[in-house]
Amino acid sequence: MHEFSTAQMIISTVIRVAKENNATRITEINLELGEFTLLNPDYLKFSLNVAAEGTMAEGAKVNITIRPGVIYCSECGYEGEAKKEDFEGAPHVPQLLSLSLKCPKCGSSATKIVGGRECTVKNIQIVTA
Ligand SMILES: [Zn+2]
């Protein structure tokens, strides 16, 4: 699953950062998740807990903030949130990302995704020795 490989990547990143800061334990991980990643936040949390097992991040509290998907319309210049129902139910992420989302302002399909595809670690809480 996509969530699990993402979780493993996040855990190895936060452990690296924590070690650079002389941490012995990670107690909290705060993430920002773009809507267009189509990752399920609950499943991602679960995957993070599994990926953290046996590491210094084991038992860390995970908080996920959802960032809305943003599109740009080359027809009318609209730049802003895309309506969630426009892309919900899309079967695969790669398909979705090549799909043109309708502009909520003028209805044109001449849009491109400019935000909401990222999954970033905002900050972490650590315990140092
Ligand atoms: Zn438009």
Please render the helix and strand layout as text.
Elements: H1 2-20, E1 23-34, H2 41-52, E2 61-67, E3 70-73, E4 79-81, H3 93-98, E5 111-115, E6 119-128
Parallel strand pairs: 1-2
Antiparallel strand pairs: 1-6, 3-4, 3-5
Helix pairs in contact: 1-2
Bound molecules: zinc ion (ZN).
The site of zinc ion has 8 residues, from loops.
Helix and strand string, N-terminal first? HEHEEEHEE
Query: Count the helices. How many?
Result: 3
The largest pleated sheet is described as: 3 strands, mixed
CATH topology of the largest domain: hypothetical protein PF0899 fold
Task: Please state the overall shape, judged from the principal axes of the Cα atoms.
Answer: elongated
Specify the CATH architecture of the largest domain.
Answer: 2-Layer Sandwich
Percent of residues in helical segments? 25-40%
The overall pLDDT average reads 88
Question: What oligomeric state do these chains adopt?
Answer: single chain
Bound molecules: zinc ion
Q: Count every beta strand, where a strand is a DSSP E run of 2 or more residues.
A: 6
Number of domains: 2
Amino- and carboxy-terminal Cα gap: 35 Å
- Structural class category: alpha+beta
Please state how the strands of the largest beta sheet are arranged side by side.
2-1-6
Our Rg estimate from Cα atoms comes to 17 Å
CATH class of the largest domain: Alpha Beta
Uncertain runs with pLDDT below 50, 5 residues or more?
Answer: none
Percent in strands: 25-35%
